[in-house]
Amino acid sequence: MAEHGATTGLTGVPETLLITLAARLLASRRNPDLRFADPAAEAVGAALGFDPDRFAHDKASMRGCVVRGQWFDAIVRHFLLSNPEGLVISIGSGLDTRANRIAPPPGVDWVDIDFAEVVSLRRAHVPPLVNVRSLAGDGTAVSDWIDDVPWHEGRPVMTIAEGVSMYLKPEQAFAWLDAMTAQARTRQSSMTIALDLASPLMVSQSHRHPSVSKTGAVFSWGVKHPADIAKKVPSLELTETYDIARQCGLPSYLVASAYRLLTFGRPIYSCAAFRM
Ligand SMILES: C[S@@+](CC[C@H](N)C(=O)[O-])C[C@H]1O[C@@H](n2cnc3c(N)ncnc32)[C@H](O)[C@@H]1O
After folding, report:
1. Measuring from atom 9 of ligand 1, which residue has the nearest CA?
2. pLDDT, tens digit, for every residue of 96-113?
3. Which among 241, 264, 268, 242 has a CA at the least distance from the CA of 254?
4. CATH of the domain at 96
5. How confident is the model at residue 247 (pLDDT cuts 50, 70, 90)?
6. Is residue 30 part of a domain?
7. According to a count of CB atoms within 10 Å of the terminal CB, is the N or C end of the chain lower?
8. With a 6 A CB cut-off, is 20 part of the ligand 1 pocket?
């Protein structure tokens, strides 16, 4: 049965932000080899009085969330190096402190979008930065928020959604990708989209997930292979994939490797970047 998020009042999908927050708070103790440091996350955890040990038993997720976060950090940093005047749109930011870790240059605008109850917590607890703002709403309902985002013609855009896609309905996910690519086309902007993607097996087993099951959330969308997205949204080209499950300790590595063998090379859980 789901336990309520006592420190935040969140339940269900929004409450899953505590899993990734716990991973960041536990990283220096549990996964020191990853050399992950995040003083802003420490400040958020302290302000909430949040005890990350609630999720500490889930060693694979605690490691996986940090490994995944480092992949997203690297891909955003790479984008900002080439596009110091670019726009970052982060869907489902939760209480992440990516912008605080990256410190985007002054020419960049960064927009974090999440549900209203989450954005209230973000505004209260995540240390503010001048060129970073939060918007409340459904990140997949692009027409609801697009006019509040400084996306002018030709401006390069990086769209990220970390730990989000699996909670979307498949039709919602594709409608969102179609809407984002349509916006980029209208503005003649280049766009990179970075997501993490669950496999159908992971989706079917989400009720057994040691951390997600504590929130009552379930996964809804899985893809057999990241390349399937580019087949359905032809303006997107798959440029990079990263098999996270093989970086989360030996048991995960063995399961992910067996899955690859049995499915002729599909990842059980991966990050993927697309560009248009
Ligand atoms: C697992 S948490 C990840 C949070 C953050 N990205 C991180 O890595 O710490 C999932 C987040 O996605 C948000 N989310 C899920 N579906 C969303 C949607 N349609 N629009 C906006 N936010 C959404 C949830 O509220 C939650 O904050």
Report:
1. 96
2. 999 999 999 999 999 999
3. 268
4. 3.40.50.150
5. confident
6. yes
7. N
8. yes
